[in-house]
């Protein structure tokens, strides 16, 4: 048994230049591991609580020194002497130590950084790849995921240059991870060429996608189809399209409808569903994320009844990697997939429990990065280890995104791990 000797936190910067938490765990045999925590821009109301300092003169209130202090005092004292190999006990201790449902006392950023560092340390001391250690914890056979790669961005990822947040390429024809990356790289490069030819901006959004500022979703979909064809590929045959609407950011609680500002119109939930259906009928759409507001359970059920047998309907803000909200969605037939973000949940084992519940119910888990990322590549290992089937990291640009893709390439060299084709939707 290897026991935890030290836990140390520090404040570092994420991909947006904002503070985040990094945690190092040291063991009695000298083994040492670290992990860092991402942060989202488009966030669900029910996510675990990210603790910020609020001191306006220090990083505009976004500092995380209070969370770091919790790592270096209460958390370090509680974990010292614990068996690093017992991930669930360590994570349970952290939740109990915090004592709140959303980890708002110590901060989910403090708790998660520690949880992930513990897992990495246990893998290291056992001589295991992190993906294999996570598979052991999850009780799964690891598998390389099908990537969905950000090509065009709007919403909060790109200064609201488009109403819809992201349009992504899914390399449905790929039979290996390297081939999947190659195909999406072709589309990403072709999209920049198409934008330049049309006199559209080629500036980068938070996750490395292009921000062309299309006025409507249909216009953006047409641009992406043109990029697929420019790359010499066939829309729908070689490359499918995934959409992240991030509809909660469009919802106007005062009027009860969705305000599509760039498009210059308002839409009811029924009209949003009709819009989604028209996109599915006219374009090679394979999945839609957050098509409706996070609290519109009736709308989500109607959407799922309408489109659930044709495309994946992914709940992000709807579920926030929260087991209770996922259980409610499963019970009421809302969505057929769940976006999995570790910092929404707050611990590794809590996240694994959500993935297991989703898979058991036939809901596709999609392991996802955040718009504010770090160079930590553990997300790739999480997607492989949980056998999630899909991963959403961002575009093929910027080091914090490429760190995850490059780790997938390394994992793919393990001949004992297969590659997941795009799973068929279930309703």
Describe this structure in words.
The strands form four sheets. An eight-stranded mixed β-barrel has the order 5-6-7-11-12-13-14-15, surrounded by seven helices. Strands 1-2-3 form a three-stranded antiparallel β-sheet. The chain has a three-stranded antiparallel β-sheet with strand order 8-9-10. It has helices at residues 65-79, 87-98, 108-126, 130-138, 177-197, 217-230, 269-282, 297-307, 323-332, 342-345, 348-360, 378-385, 399-412, and strands at residues 4-13, 19-27, 32-36, 143-144, 146-153, 166-170, 240-244, 251-252, 257-260, 265-267, 285-289, 312-315, 337-340, 364-368, 390-394, 418-419. With 427 residues, the protein is α/β, with parallel strands linked by helices. 38% of the residues lie in helices and 18% in strands. Helix 12 links the parallel strand 14 (364-368) and strand 15. The termini are far apart.
């Amino acid at each position: 048994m290897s026991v935890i000797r030290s836990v140390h936190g520090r404040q570092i910067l994420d991909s947006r230049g904002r503070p985040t938490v990094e945690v190092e765990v040291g063991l009695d045999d000298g083994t040492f591991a670290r992990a860092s925590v991402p942060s989202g821009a488009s966030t669900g109301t029910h996510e675990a609580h990210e603790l910020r300092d609020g001191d306006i003169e220090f990083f505009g209130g976004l500092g995380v020194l209070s969370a770091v202090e919790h790592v270096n005092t209460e958390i370090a004292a509680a974990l010292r002497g614990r068996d690093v190999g017992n991930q669930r006990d360590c994570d349970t201790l952290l939740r109990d130590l915090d004592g709140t449902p959303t980890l708002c006392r110590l901060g989910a950023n403090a708790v998660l950084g520690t949880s992930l560092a513990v897992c990495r340390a246990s893998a290291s001391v056992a001589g295991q790849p992190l993906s294999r250690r996570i598979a052991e914890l999850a009780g799964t056979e690891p598998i390389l995921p099908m990537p969905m790669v950000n090509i065009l961005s709007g919403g909060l990822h790109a200064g609201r240059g488009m109403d819809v947040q992201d349009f992504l390429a899914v390399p449905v024809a790929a039979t290996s991870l390297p081939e999947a990356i190659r195909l999406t790289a072709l589309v990403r490069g072709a999209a920049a060429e198409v934008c330049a030819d049309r006199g559209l901006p080629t500036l980068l959004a938070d996750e490395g996608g292009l921000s062309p500022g299309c006025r409507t979703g249909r216009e953006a979909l047409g641009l992406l189809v043109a990029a697929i064809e420019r790359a010499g590929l066939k829309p729908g045959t070689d490359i499918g399209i995934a959409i992240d609407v991030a509809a909660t950011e469009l919802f106007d609680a005062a009027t009860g409808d969705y305000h599509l500002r760039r498009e210059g119109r308002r839409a009811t939930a029924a009209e949003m569903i009709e819009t989604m259906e028209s996109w599915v009928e006219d374009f090679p759409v394979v999945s839609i994320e957050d098509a409706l507001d996070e609290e519109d359970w009736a709308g989500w059920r109607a959407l799922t009844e309408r489109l659930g047998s044709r495309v994946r309907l992914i709940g992000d803000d709807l579920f926030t990697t929260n087991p209770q909200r996922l259980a409610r969605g499963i019970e009421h037939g809302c969505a057929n997939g769940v976006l999995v973000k570790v910092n929404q949940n707050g611990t590794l084992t809590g996240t694994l429990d959500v993935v297991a519940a989703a898979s058991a119910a036939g809901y596709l888990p999609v392991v996802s990065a955040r718009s504010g990322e770090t160079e930590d590549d553990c997300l790739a290992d999480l997607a492989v280890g949980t056998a999630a089937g899909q991963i959403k990291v961002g575009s093929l640009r910027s080091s914090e995104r490429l760190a995850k893709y490059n780790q997938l390439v390394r994992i793919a060299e393990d001949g004992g791990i297969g590659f997941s084709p795009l799973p068929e939707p279930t309703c």
